Amino acid sequence: MNKRLKSMAENRAKLITAARSAFAEKGYAASSMDDLTANVGLTRGALYHNFGDKRGLLAAVVEQIDSEMAEHAKKARAEARDDWRGLLAEGAAYIELALDPEVQRIVLLDGPAVLGDPSQWPSQSSCLESTKLTLERLIANRVLKEIDTEVGARLINGAALNAALWVAASATPQEVLPKALETFFALATGLLK
Fold this sequence. Notes:
By secondary structure, this protein is mainly alpha-helical. It has helices spanning 3-26, 33-39, 44-51, 54-78, 83-96, 101-115, 123-140, 149-169, 173-189.
């Protein structure tokens, strides 16, 4: 990588790191781009060059955290004994992340308010495809009813996402989480053969 490209990548990483910290601490609306850029020794021009605007910077931060959330959920799935338990563990792990203050504020509260419907975010496509493949295996192994796997994946992922959004927005997330998990499991269990 040439020196200029390396410098651009480093500036981008600095801005994402600084924004992630500011958005988690203060929230998107209260975070000053002048303070953020000054804290990492860059200008607003660097921010605009890399992200277009503050909203673009939020999208990059959300993408980074959402990718980490997906990896966390995939790890929970991989640790399960079988595909069925893995499907449940993956959904539960995603919902439980709603208690993480950074995830809660940036991805589940500010993200949808600024970036729109999370089910339409690019990062959701890989999660959807992974769930669809798991459903196909479970149907082939006669664990689940014969369902349209596209619809099933959208509904399972949508249930986990909406449960996480609900937990994050709740005044009492610790109390809401067990209810969300119990109902998520009940809904998913309805797919069993």
